[in-house]
From TrEMBL:
This is Mitochondrial basic amino acids transporter. Gene3D superfamilies: Mitochondrial carrier domain (1.50.40.10). It comes from Gallus gallus. Signal peptide: none annotated. The keyword Signal does not apply. GO terms for molecular function: high-affinity L-arginine transmembrane transporter activity; high-affinity lysine transmembrane transporter activity; O-acyl-L-carnitine transmembrane transporter activity. It comes from the Eukaryota. The keyword Nucleotide-binding does not apply. PROSITE patterns: SOLCAR.
Amino acid sequence: MQGQDSPLQIGRGCTNPDEETRIPGILKNWKSNLKNKSNVAWTGAAGVLVGHPFDTVKVRLQVQNVEKPLYRGTFHCFQSIIKQESAFGLYKGIGSPMMGLTFINAVVFGVQGNTLRALGKDTPLNQFLAGSAAGAIQCIICCPMELAKTRMQLQGTGEYKQKTKNYKNSLDCLIKIYRKEGLRGINRGMVSTVIRETPSFGFYFLTYDCMTRYLGCEAEDSYVIPKLLFSGGMSGIVSWLSTYPVDVIKSRLQADGVGGVTQYKGILDCVRKSYQEEGWKVFTRGLTSTLLRAFPVNAATFATVTVFLMYMRSENDLRECDPGPVIQQPSSL
């Protein structure tokens, strides 16, 4: 599969033959296709609205006390939250990802595209390396965002009307953590986030690359959109499976101390204690909810970004091929 070109061509009649035009190689032309990266960043908003309830369930299952578990599984967790906290309970902490993911999408696709251009050839290995670079860099935004999200998701667990609120919203959460713990508190779980995100995003873009090559996505193919959706969805699933145990540890570290008492000294201590208390299954807690969320959210994100870039690319090609205005010379007759 190394070096094999997908037949997708954008703006065929005018495209420079030396220019990269395949999917997802087109993503490496991000900078030239989009003058403003925020034009695509909004694609994460719809995904957050659809996927956040699944994420709330995932976090609740990952961090619940094994001695006194509140939830028996994914669907019981859904039912319990709706019954005890109303449907709005599933959307606790949504403000943080709604604000953060727009920037994360811009950073991820921007860094991945520019890194791929710097690496030169559009190969599966370079897709993995470019994706890994993007995953590592976006942790600067991702870690504080997920810290606030996690704390908000756990606030008022099992209460229809919260008697006491530690945090008014995600921003208030970050401000209070900063005042109490400083930058170190804001970046709680940063190392585990980097360990999770770096290879995860590498597999994310690698899988999308391999899937689009294998499915033979072509611009004139009437099934190109379903193919892009399937490729994006599978990318999300593979991405999560590749590092899911690390996500469990990250959630536990970021939730640690919510009740006032900290349990873990660090990543290794969290791994050791979690395994001793619950066995290997602890590292799969919340996986069902995660996979149910991963496919539709990532299918929509990748397909929307790719189609938008295809459109922008074709518009640019058409402008490059315009003959320009005809200047009328004054008649000498």
